[in-house]
Specification:
The chain is mostly helical. It is built from nine helices and no strands. Helix 4 runs parallel beside helix 7.
Amino acid sequence: MCQSGAAHVLGAYASAVSPKSTPPAPAAPSLTERRKAATQLEIARAAADLFTELGPDATTTEAIASRAGVGLRTFYRYFRNKQDAVGPLLSVGGEHWRARLAATAPGTPLPEALAGAIAESLAVPDEATAAGLRQARGLLRAAADDPALRAVWYQVNQESEDQVRSVLAQLGDRSGEGGGGADPLDVRLAAAASTAAIRIALETWAETDADVEGPGSPADLALRCLRRLLPE
């Protein structure tokens, strides 16, 4: 989601990653799991579209299920209520940037890795990506007037922060400096700061009419946030 150099709160982290200690890749999801995830994401997209078009109050679970092409029983199999339905969509960006962070090249200092992973995740290589960001903008605008939608957004960010802590701890454990890895406080601070940088950037961007690229874009704002939250 952002680009280029950030700050230094993690001096102990700025070390090489040992390739031979890289953990094995997780098992690929089964066909059933992939189908379940695809259905959840389809429902989430339908919910986001309707929240943007009609507003939270006028959007019903029945309308979401109909737009997604599923029955109400299927909807409630996956989600408790209409606001919960957007969770999978809001989680996608975080999944992408954590994957990029975990794939940090050996020898990359962590502050640079954080910024680079965010930059790549918020890059806009095609129109489909741009459309996804605009959909997120509409959803965040709808959430401004709906406490339940905001609660889902905050929950997604908290869960992402917890997972980022795990990724950063693994990077520290795989560093080539020896010793016990990075200070847990540094890990927690970096996870909180990088997650907050993305959240604040997207919320700020959603309040404007700035483009998906360039000045005032999510990537531009997230980098600026990261540099301020993790000062030199």
